[in-house]
Amino acid sequence: MSNDENERELTRLWRITRTVKTMCLDRGYELTEDECAIPLSQFRDLVTDDTGTPQRTKMAFTARPSAEMLARYTPLPKPGSVATPEPQIGTIHVEFNPNTSVGIKDLKQFAQLLQEKNYYTGIFITQAAPTSSALKIIPSLLPIQMEIFKEEDLLVNISRHELVPKHLLLSPEEKKGLLERYRLKETQLPRIRVDDPMARYLGLRRGQVVKIIRKSETAGRYASYRWVI
């Protein structure tokens, strides 16, 4: 690559990295605002080689869930049980795949890394969409939590768009309180698909409930709730 091409690619990857780190922060992982807003000059020093070419293998990072996030992912105790349920969340590992195509071998290698390092969730960021045969093996990798994003989908942070309302995941206790307050079953709530862009951004899972806060000209703002399916 020429110097100009390196600089364009570097700037592009820098924007993607800022989006990914902000996404993890918004989910509740322990990242600082400074880490999410890393300056381009610092990013350049961290990820380029001696020729100034950005290396995706240097862009990987991990983050632990905050205490608040652990609480939001801790199931309610079963009736009659004295044991405290374990949080259904843990350390996340984010990796940028350097290959221009992604197949079964790439996903299996990433899954193996997550398992060996005992990471609870993995985000695999690719330059191109994985092959259809590669996507079919993901269910067989359970209980590993693996998410796949294309680089181009992370160039802009959708959660910061003025037309996108704020989404907040309810804890199991908050979900229970909501259903009891309105005397509802979760199936009676409006729904949001697990592959909705904001559901993907927050890593929502089926059965969870998300609070959506919108602006209102009369009330200032109002909240609605969606059940993730």
Can you give a write-up of this model?
It is a single chain. The chain is an alpha/beta fold and 229 residues long. The protein has 2 domains: 3-156, Dna-directed Rna Polymerases I, Ii, And Iii 27 Kd Polypeptide, Chain: A, domain 1; 160-228, RPB5-like RNA polymerase subunit (Eukaryotic RPB6 RNA polymerase subunit), CATH 3.90.940. The protein is built from 8 helices and 8 strands, in the order αααβαβαβαββαβαββ. The protein has helices at residues 3-27, 33-36, 40-47, 67-72, 104-117, 132-136, 172-182, 197-202, and strands at residues 61-63, 92-96, 121-126, 145-150, 166-169, 191-192, 209-216, 220-228. The strands form 2 sheets. A 4-stranded mixed beta sheet has the order 1-2-3-4, with helices on one face. The chain has a 4-stranded mixed beta sheet with strand order 5-7-8-6. Strand 2 (92-96), helix 5 (104-117) and strand 3 (121-126) form a beta-alpha-beta unit. It starts with a helix and ends with a strand. Pfam families: RNA_pol_Rpb5_C, RNA_pol_Rpb5_N. InterPro entries: Arch_Rpo5/euc_Rpb5, RNA_pol_Rpb5_N, RNA_pol_Rpb5_N_sf, RNA_pol_subH/Rpb5_C, RNA_pol_subH/Rpb5_CS, RPB5-like_sf. Residues 156-228 form the RNA polymerase subunit H/Rpb5 C-terminal domain. GO terms for molecular function: DNA binding; DNA-directed RNA polymerase activity. This is DNA-directed RNA polymerases I, II, and III subunit RPABC1.
